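Sequence in, structure out. First:
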Amino acid sequence: MIGAIVRRELSAPLMRELMRELARTAPPGEQYRVYIVGGGTAVLEGWRAATIDADLYSEREEVFRDVQGIKERLQLNIEFARPEQFVPALAGSADRHRFVERVGLVDFYHYDPYAQLLSKIVRGFRKDLLDAEQFVRRDLVDPREFLELVRQVPNSAYAKYPNLSRSSVLAAVEEFLTGFE
């Protein structure tokens, strides 16, 4: 094992510091979008005090050119992830990202809450389901619209996810949503 480094939990102030560092080290002269996913959304939205890592995504990876240095300076874990790596895409996802703030040339967004919710329900760990509840309770997701979006995912979309089936995903979503009727 290469020297284990103890990393700090990601709190809201540390998340904001991470955002400033990403903006500071972004290549100059261009604008970027960085999406916050998972625990970072929970922390910035205020339903969790901290998370173990920052899950981030950008279509333009050059914005992360100093990510190793940032990880070391801030002593935190950064992962590159988005829901579609784990679950099928929901129609209209690109239109549902929620603006957080602009720092320098970087616009920060919460990744589509509907896509995040689906990912958390499918993963199904206790912490994920507690986060999933908050997406609904805080009106970040409309349960009826969410169910309809999941129902619209074509069977062919599941081919990319061999551990998932349309029927099991729908069953998990419907079971989860029974708590919100």
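Second:
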Amino acid sequence: MQNVIRIKNAIFYGYHGVKKEEQKVGGKYEADIDMYCDFSKAAISDNLSETIDYQQIYLFVSELIQERKFFLIETLAMTIADEILKNFDGIEKIAVRIRKKNAPVGGLVDCVEAEVIKEKSEIKKTK
């Protein structure tokens, strides 16, 4: 059985971007994280220890976005996917979408988004 736990539209403030102004002033970033796992045991037992603690995922992503700087949202999305798969057991596949609001594209857009979809088998564990 494969189930999905989703964190949708988590909002963070970070200092990412190619332009120096973006790195200095910062901006809002939105994240969606789809974690593919089997939470059937947790659903039966109603026990958090048998599933993915999405609060821990949120805090992990928040720390990563706020403490590190990346030029590209593509790198940020890939790093989040890789680090979650390396550090959290029970997640077999992940989809991470990062949206950058007010992206400097020379015109009006709602956002720019990068998505990474990766399976645990693609990651080498370094724990």
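Remark: The two ends are 26 Å apart (CA to CA).
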